[in-house]
């Protein structure tokens, strides 16, 4: 489970990256895009992708007290799709630079393999 310090660190990294790529948002918003992305990250890592539980968690522990309700949260998250894609590539390239290993793990789903059976010189 994520502790408050880890969540704060994740938020700061996401917020700094968004500032670095000159991401702008409406100043009238009470919940920033960084808070939305951080909450989605919490949902993905600690609540099996359940946004409702993550929203409840950040409100309950006063991490993001102005967090939106689930419907508005999902709409905002959906609108951030392109930024999330770009953010993923930035973080991946940053991670690739700081790691010394050349071995990477790829999570994959097992797929059955079709076996090609050759029939040698079948004569009818």
Descriptive key words:
124 residues; 56% helix
Question: What does this protein structure show overall?
Answer:
The protein has one domain (4-98). 56% of the residues lie in helices and 0% in strands. The protein is built from five helices and no strands. It has helices at 4-20, 33-46, 51-60, 70-79, 81-98. The radius of gyration is 21 Å and the shape is globular. The mean pLDDT is 83.
Protein topology:
Blueprint: H1 4-20, H2 33-46, H3 51-60, H4 70-79, H5 81-98
Helix pairs in contact: 1-2, 2-3
In short:
The protein is mainly alpha-helical and 124 residues long. Helices cover 56% and strands 0% of the residues. The protein starts with a helix and ends in a 26-residue tail after the last helix.
**Count of discrete domains:** 1
**Class inferred from helices and paired strands:** mainly alpha
Largest sheet: none
The tally of strands reads 0
**Spatial separation of the terminal alpha carbons:** 67 Å
Order of helices and strands: HHHHH
Spans of 5+ residues with little confidence (pLDDT < 50)?
A: none
The gyration radius over C-alpha positions equals: 21 Å
